[in-house]
C-alpha cells in the first residue's frame, strides 16, 4: 500500500474496476454530497481516458437544498454524465409510501424500486466505516437479497483484496469504494485536487433554530415551531442530506483549507453533530440498513 | 508514513476492549458524541464502569450479548500516522473472523494476562497470526498492575512465549508490558514500569516500518480490466488496468504475459495522476504495451525470467468459513485467485490442524466452519501462483459455493509436496 491518500485512492480504484469487470449493470449513487463527489472523481480517474462505464443515480427526497441540486446537475454536466433520478416525491404521489416529517427512511423504497426497474446489479455508494457503528461492520462488497435486505449476522467474510461478487437472480451488491476513508481523508483529497463542492459545506450566514441541541436551517421544507426562535448564524454543513434532518454547525471555515483544519480538530463525529435521524435509537442506522437503506 | 492496519485479537477477558478504548481515549481519538453514547448505554445497563467495548461492538446482537461477533473497523490518527484497527473476536468459535481480520493486517496485537501467562488462547492466536503471514506481531503482557509490575514475571512470560513460538513463522515479535486499565505504557510512560526500556505501544505502532513488507522483487501484475476508450482522440489506446501485486514495474521493461507466454515491452504506465515511470506494489495503474497482444482479465504480466508457477494442482492450507455447509470433496466450487476465477475441487484433505497445539490430526469428518486443514486442490484452469509465504496477493484464494454464493473457504498456497 502506498502512503497517505494515494494508498486509499489505489484501494478505491481497485474496487471500482472490480465492479466494472464483474457486473453487468453497475450504478453510482450521486447526491452532490462530498463523499459521493469524491467517489465520482475517483471513479472517473479509474477509467481515464475511457468514459466512466457506470450509470449515475440520485435518490431525491424532494427536500434537498436547492444549492445542492443545482451543484449536482452542474457537476455531472462537467463530466458529461447523464443522471437517473429516483424520486421519493413520485413514490409518495403514486401512493407507494406515506409522506413523513423526515423523508430520509423513505428513500429506501424509491431506491429499491429503481434498482429493480433498471436491473442494477451493483450499486456504488460513498458510505464510510468511520461514519457510524453499523457501517463499521459493513463489507466493501455488501450482498443484498432479493428484497434488498442486509443481513448483518450472515455477511460473507471478506479476505485479502479478493471480493466475492457472486450473485443470484434478483439480488444485488452495495459497494463502498471509500469504506476505509475518514472524514478528514475525504477533505484532504478534496483539498489535494481542489474539488468543487456545494456552497453549503462552507461557512455562510443563514436563518437557523435550535432543536434537540442541533442547529436546523429554516427552509421551505422545515420551519421552526412555537417556542423555537429563528436567528441568523454563521454556519456550515458537515453532511448534506435531506433538509428536514440535516443540521448545520457553527463555523467560520470559508475555504477547503479552513475545513481541513477544522475537521482535524473536531471533537464530535459528523453524523453525531448533524443527523437527527441517527439519534432516533441506538440501532437507527442498523435497522434502516437491514431494510435496504444505504 | 503508510497507514497501519492492525488486528487486535482477543476476548473481553483479556482486556482487549479496554486496550482499544485506552488507545483511542489517550490519543484523543474518541469523539464526544461517541463517548456520551457509550456512557449513556453503560449507565442504562447498570454497568459499574464505562464499557469501552461498546465503541466497537456495532451490531444490536453484539451489544445485547456483550460480545464481539464480527470484525469491527475503527479509525484513528495521530500526527505521526493514521491507523485502522481491525478488532477481532478471540473465542475459538470466531476463528474465521480472526482469519478474516488477519488477512489484511500489517500487524497483530495479542494480549496475555500477566497473571495467567501463555495459555491455550495465546497459542491459538499466535498460530493464526503465523499462518496468515501477518508481518509484525506485538505481544502485550497486560494487567501488569495485578502482578505488582514485576519485571521478573514479564521476562518469564516472554521466555515461555519464545519457547513456544520458535516453531512458528513469526518474523518480527515485540513484547510490551502494559496495563490497559491503568494506562501504563499504552500511550504514556508511567513510573510503575520504569524498568522497561522499550517503547510505549502507541510509539511502537507509530514507528513500525512496513514499507519492506511488500514483495518488491518479483514483478506480478494481474490484469483486472482492459481500458479501450473507442474515441477518435484515443483511437489506438489499449490499456491494461490493475493493481501491482509484486515487484516494481518500469517503462521500458521487457515483459511476458501469462498464460499465453507472449512477450512485449512496457511503453507507458498511466496512473490516476497521469503518466508515471515506475509503479510499486499496491499502485492502481494502467499499463501500455508496445505490441498489440491479446491480453484479458485474469492474465498476468511479469518479467520473462521471473514467473509464477502455472499449474492446476495445488497444495494449500484451507480455512473453512461457511457456517451453513461443510466441505464436500470433489464438489465443484468457484475459486477466485487474483483476478482469475476458475472451477476447482478439493480432492483430498491431508490433515486437520489443531490450532491450539500445532498438531496434525487425521480428519474425522468433513471440514466445517473454523476448521483449518491442509488440502489438495485441482483447478479447471491453471493458476498463475506464488507461495503465500512469498506473496500474500498471488498466494491467496477463496472458494465460493456455487449453489449459495457464500464464501466457503479461504486458502493459502503452499510449495508443492516433495
Number of domains of chain B: 3
Main sheet overview of chain B: 8 strands, antiparallel
Cα end-to-end separation of chain A:
28 Å
**Largest interface (C-beta under 8 Å):** A-B, 61 and 72 residues
Helical percent range of chain B? 10-25%
**Helicity range of the residues of chain A?**
25-40%
Shape of chain A: globular
- With strands numbered from the N-terminus, the spatial order across the biggest sheet of chain A is 3-2-1-4-6-5
Mean pLDDT of chain B: 90
The oligomerization state is: heterodimer
- The CATH superfamily name of the largest domain in chain A is HUPs
What is the CATH topology descriptor of the largest domain in chain A?
Rossmann fold
Strand content of chain A: 15-25%
**From the helix content, strand content and strand pairing of chain A, which structural class follows?**
alpha/beta
Major β-sheet annotation of chain A: 6 strands, mixed
How many beta-strand segments of chain A?
Answer: 10
The overall number of domains of chain A is 2
CATH class of the largest domain in chain A: Alpha Beta
Q: Which architecture of the largest domain in chain B per CATH?
A: 3-Layer(aba) Sandwich
Amino acid at each position: 500500500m502506498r502512503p497517505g491518500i494515494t494508498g486509499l485512492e489505489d484501494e478505491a480504484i481497485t474496487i471500482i474496476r472490480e465492479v466494472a469487470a464483474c457486473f453487468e449493470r453497475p450504478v453510482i449513487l450521486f447526491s452532490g454530497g462530498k463523499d459521493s463527489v469524491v467517489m465520482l472523481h475517483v471513479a472517473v480517474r479509474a477509467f481515464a481516458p475511457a468514459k466512466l462505464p457506470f450509470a449515475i443515480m440520485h435518490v431525491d427526497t424532494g427536500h434537498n437544498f436547492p444549492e445542492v441540486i443545482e451543484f449536482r446537475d452542474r457537476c455531472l454536466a462537467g463530466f458529461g454524465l447523464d443522471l437517473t433520478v429516483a424520486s421519493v416525491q413520485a413514490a409518495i404521489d403514486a401512493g407507494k409510501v406515506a409522506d413523513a416529517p423526515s423523508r430520509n427512511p423513505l428513500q429506501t423504497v424509491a431506491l429499491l424500486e429503481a434498482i429493480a426497474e433498471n436491473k442494477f446489479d451493483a450499486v456504488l455508494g460513498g458510505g464510510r466505516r468511520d461514519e457510524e457503528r453499523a457501517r463499521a461492520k459493513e463489507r466493501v462488497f455488501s450482498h443484498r437479497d432479493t428484497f434488498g435486505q442486509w443481513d448483518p449476522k450472515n455477511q460473507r467474510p471478506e479476505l485479502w483484496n479478493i471480493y466475492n461478487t457472486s450473485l443470484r437472480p434478483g439480488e444485488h451488491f452495495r459497494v463502498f469504494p471509500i469504506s476505509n476513508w475518514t472524514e478528514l481523508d475525504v477533505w484532504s483529497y478534496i483539498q489535494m485536487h481542489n474539488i468543487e463542492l456545494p456552497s453549503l459545506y462552507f461557512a455562510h450566514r443563514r436563518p437557523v433554530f435550535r432543536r434537540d441541541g442541533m442547529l436546523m436551517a429554516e427552509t421551505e421544507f422545515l420551519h421552526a415551531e412555537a417556542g423555537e426562535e429563528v436567528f441568523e448564524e454563521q454556519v456550515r454543513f458537515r453532511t448534506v442530506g435531506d433538509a428536514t434532518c440535516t443540521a448545520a454547525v457553527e463555523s467560520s471555515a470559508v475555504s477547503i483549507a479552513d475545513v481541513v483544519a477544522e475537521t482535524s480538530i473536531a471533537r464530535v463525529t459528523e453524523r453525531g453533530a448533524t443527523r437527527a435521524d441517527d439519534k432516533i435509537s441506538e440501532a437507527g442506522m442498523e435497522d434502516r440498513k437491514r431494510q435496504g437503506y444505504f | 508514513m503508510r497507514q497501519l492496519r492492525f488486528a487486535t485479537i482477543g476476548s473481553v477477558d483479556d482486556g482487549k476492549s479496554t486496550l482499544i478504548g485506552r488507545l483511542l481515549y489517550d490519543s484523543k481519538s474518541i469523539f464526544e458524541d461517541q463517548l456520551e453514547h457509550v456512557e449513556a448505554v453503560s449507565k442504562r445497563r447498570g454497568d459499574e464502569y464505562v464499557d469501552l467495548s461498546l465503541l466497537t461492538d456495532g451490531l444490536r446482537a453484539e451489544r445485547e450479548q456483550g460480545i464481539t461477533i464480527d470484525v469491527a473497523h475503527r479509525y484513528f490518527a495521530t500526527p505521526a500516522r493514521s491507523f485502522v484497527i481491525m478488532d477481532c473476536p478471540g473465542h475459538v468459535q470466531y476463528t474465521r473472523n480472526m482469519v478474516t481480520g488477519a488477512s489484511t493486517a500489517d500487524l497483530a496485537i495479542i494480549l496475555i494476562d500477566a497473571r495467567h501467562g501463555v495459555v491455550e488462547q495465546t497459542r491459538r492466536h499466535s498460530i493464526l497470526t503465523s499462518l496468515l503471514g501477518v508481518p509484525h506481531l506485538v505481544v502485550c503482557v497486560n494487567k501488569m498492575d495485578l502482578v505488582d509490575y514485576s519485571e521478573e514475571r514479564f521476562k518469564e512470560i516472554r521466555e515461555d512465549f519464545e519457547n513456544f513460538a520458535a516453531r512458528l513463522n513469526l518474523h518480527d515479535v515485540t513484547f510490551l508490558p502494559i496495563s490497559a486499565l491503568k494506562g501504563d505504557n499504552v500511550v504514556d510512560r508511567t513510573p510503575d514500569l520504569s524498568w522497561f526500556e522499550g517503547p510505549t505501544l502507541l510509539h511502537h505502532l507509530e514507528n513500525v516500518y512496513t514499507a519492506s513488507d511488500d514483495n518488491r522483487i518479483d514483478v506480478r501484475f494481474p490484469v483486472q480490466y482492459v481500458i479501450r476508450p473507442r474515441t477518435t482522440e484515443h483511437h489506438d489506446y489499449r490499456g491494461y488496468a490493475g493493481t501491482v501485486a509484486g515487484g516494481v514495474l518500469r517503462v521500458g521493461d521487457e515483459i511476458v504475459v501469462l498464460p499465453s507466454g507472449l512477450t512485449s515491452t512496457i511503453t507507458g504506465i498511466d496512473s490516476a495522476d497521469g503518466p508515471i515511470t515506475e509503479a510499486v506494489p499496491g499502485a492502481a495503474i494502467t499499463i501500455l504495451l508496445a505490441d498489440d497482444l491479446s491480453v484479458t482479465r485474469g492474465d498476468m504480466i511479469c518479467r520473462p525470467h521471473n514467473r509464477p508457477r502455472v499449474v492446476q494442482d495445488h497444495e494449500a492450507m484451507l480455512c473453512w468459513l461457511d457456517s451453513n455447509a461443510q466441505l464436500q470433496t470433489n464438489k465443484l466450487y468457484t475459486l477466485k485467485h487474483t483476478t482469475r476465477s476458475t472451477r476447482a475441487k478439493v480432492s483430498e484433505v491431508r490433515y486437520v490442524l489443531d490450532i491450539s497445539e500445532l498438531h496434525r490430526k487425521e480428519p474425522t469428518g468433513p471440514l466445517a466452519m473454523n476448521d483449518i486443514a491442509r488440502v489438495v486442490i485441482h483447478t479447471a484452469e491453471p493458476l498463475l501462483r506464488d507461495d503465500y509465504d512469498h506473496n500474500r496477493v498471488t498466494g491467496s484464494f477463496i472458494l465460493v459455493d456455487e449453489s449459495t454464493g457464500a464464501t466457503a473457504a479461504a486458502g493459502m498456497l503452499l510449495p508443492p509436496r516433495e
